[in-house]
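Entry 14. Ran structure prediction on the chain below.
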Amino acid sequence: MTTPDPTRAQQLIRACRMVAEARPEQIARLLKDIAAQGGSERAL
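Output, structure tokens:
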């Protein structure tokens, strides 16, 4: 089992905190940004 690099883990933790503290409209915007970056095959 490999451990992820710390920077990736910190990014995930930061993203989780953002979602936990965000208002619904902020979460919707964040999901749209992620979908746009992820490519058309992952679009919501």
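The mean pLDDT is 78. Will compare against last week's run tomorrow.
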